Amino acid sequence: MIVTTLPLGPLQTNCYILQADLPRCLVIDPADSAGQILTLAAQRGLTIEAVLLTHGHFDHVGAVKALMSQTGCRVYICREDLALPSRITGGPLTYTDTYGEGDTLTLAGMTFTVLQGPGHTPGSVCLRFEQDLFTGDILFAGSCGRTDLPGGDPRAMTATLRRLAQLPGDYRVWPGHGESTTLEEEKRYNLYLRSAKG
């Protein structure tokens, strides 16, 4: 699987384009600049099959409507985030499907599992593709997501971080903002993950 990172929008949210050995791709968290995403896909001869959202905050969904209207792609979000207030989603959320804890889907030739991780929002998810983990605003390199916005829950975040800390093995972690890291690195040095693990 090839992962391309595009930091987009005023908060430099990481938009990820995932491709395997097929002329189709997945887009995770298209934050902004639909034109830039479509141009990159076209340059590589890729068709966007689906958009996967780690959560519904405005800085992660800004280009969803345009991508959906121009490509007819499916858009997946966790159902619990559909109740988020519009002031933090940037308006009504655009989607075609919902997913949740334990769901396994195969799209664009890639299979992933949904790990629901409330705390940042009620419907925040991690998306696990073999040894790659897309964590949205749950886990960052050296930090974790904030819990003071509507729908945030510090206790739920602690439980979610504890779950990630207990995952066996190592993963490449692709967060919603900032540099990529590894789960093993975060288990060793991320104070939020270490304190959640207890």
Helix and strand layout, with pairings?
Layout: E1 2-8, E2 13-19, E3 24-28, H1 34-43, E4 47-52, H2 58-61, H3 64-71, E5 74-78, H4 86-89, E6 97-99, E7 104-107, E8 110-116, E9 125-129, E10 132-136, E11 139-140, E12 143-144, H5 154-165, E13 172-175, E14 181-182, H6 183-189, H7 191-197
Parallel strand pairs: 3-4, 4-5, 5-6, 10-13
Antiparallel strand pairs: 1-2, 2-3, 7-8, 8-9, 9-10, 11-12, 13-14
Helix pairs in contact: 5-7
CATH superfamily: Ribonuclease Z/Hydroxyacylglutathione hydrolase-like
CATH class: Alpha Beta
- The proportion of strand residues reads 25-35%
Head-to-tail CA distance between termini: 34 Å
Named CATH architecture: 4-Layer Sandwich
Give the biggest sheet. Answer: 6 strands, mixed
How large is the count of helical segments?
Answer: 7
Radius of gyration (Å): 16 Å
Give me the secondary-structure category. alpha/beta
Oligomer: single chain
Strand/helix succession: EEEHEHHEHEEEEEEEHEEHH
Quick check: average pLDDT?
95
